[in-house]
Amino acid sequence: MGRAALVGSLLGSSLVVYACVGDEPERVVPSVDGGTDTGPSSSEDDAGEKVDGGNGNGDACDGGSTCEGVCVDTSSDPENCGRCAHDCGKGTCESGVCKPALIADVGDGGAAITSLTTDQTDDNPQGLAQRVFWSATGTGGGVFQDNVVGGNKVTLSTAPPTSRSNVVVSQSNVFWFSQNFGGAPQPVLKGQVNIAASQASVGTMNASFIQSILYDATTKNVVGSYAVNATQHGIFKCGPGGGVTCTSAITYSGQPGGNVATDGTGVYFCDPDNGLILRTALTGGSSSSYVTNQATPNLLRVDGTNLYWSNSGTKTIQRGGLGGGTPKQLASAASAADGLAADAVNVYWTETATGKLSYAPITGAGPTTAYVTLGASTVPMRLVRDTGFLYFSHGTAIYRVALP
Question: Which of 83, 99, 102 lies closest to 91, judged by CA?
């Protein structure tokens, strides 16, 4: 397969600001040189009134906006797209909305992307990513990294993982598993960031299969969900040193599904068949139900305050506080979500069946906006974010687009 064709366009010609309870979170906007700006969406005087456009010399800015004393056209300027200091990175700006930029295309010989991440944590990232990492199956598959703007791909492993896999990153290592469908043991592997062909063993898990993993920076462990047998499942952890047998933290009766997420002290995981999201301490012990009566929950994400998930049975996006409580529905999707991310402003998701990346306010009080529209894909569209951009896959290609 060749490069995934961008057959759609960003929808809408302007951005809408939604009122939130309390102060609106300040969007940290990346600059071209990799720094950040936190400028307001429009110029305001001390009384909060928008200042008429000018060029900094007292002259009118005819038909444009003044950003840092320079007259710009925010409908097409990729460094000030839709508002001052809203930088599209390598993407273009059309009608005041950033377009996605291609990072990498792995489509030689039919490889399909099975996992995507960056060197920022998938849960509550704290800065701008420098690198993107992914796994791909098929001929030409393996585990790879590249710069967030592309052009410097490193092949960490040429052994293509199976369709069930995911890649997670610490500062110096990349971790993944390659499902052994023949039964236990299940291998957990790692490679070194920036080092080609650096695959090595982390350890093995005595399990019929591994469902998902994450890297916990606090304990420096790889943590994941696994199946013991047809009815017993659990959470395991592996030390990062390698050459060890991974240990079970807890076991429970149920069916693992989706991914695992962490808030820094606990691990959240799904039992989709029974409509449960559960939580256990990173150090192990017993598990407890975080929320019940969900419709096939999966795709867990944490933003530091809330837990987000998709209910694929009802095609909805949900939010709950990390301390528990009644879930709040944020949006309804046209089809079940296949990727999920969230920040202090919006929740974002991908729909493989429609080829869309959409977002809605985390307050649940605003409409759904289709941000990027691509052709329908047969491969799930993965999605992660850093503090300035969304990263997503479509077929054999990986894209980056600025946060709205």
Answer: 99
* CA distance linking residue 145 with residue 157, whole number of Å: 10
Asked if 234 and 197 touch (Cβ cutoff 8 Å), the reply is: no
Q: In 155-279, which ranges are continuous DSSP H helix? A: none
CA of residue 28 relative to chain centroid, distance: 17
For residue 160, count other CB atoms closer than 10 A to its CB: 20
Give CA–CA dist 32/45, Å, rounded. 27
Q: Profile the chain (404 residues) by mean pLDDT over runs of 10 residues.
A: 37 34 39 38 37 43 86 96 96 97 82 91 93 88 93 88 78 87 86 94 88 88 89 86 74 88 93 93 88 96 93 97 91 94 96 97 94 93 97 95 98
Cβ neighbors of 14 (< 8 A, separation 6 or more) are: 82, 95, 96, 97
What is the C-alpha to C-alpha distance for residues 311 and 338, in angstroms, rounded to an integer? 11
* Residue 248 burial (CB count, 10 A): 15
| Model pTM score | 0.84
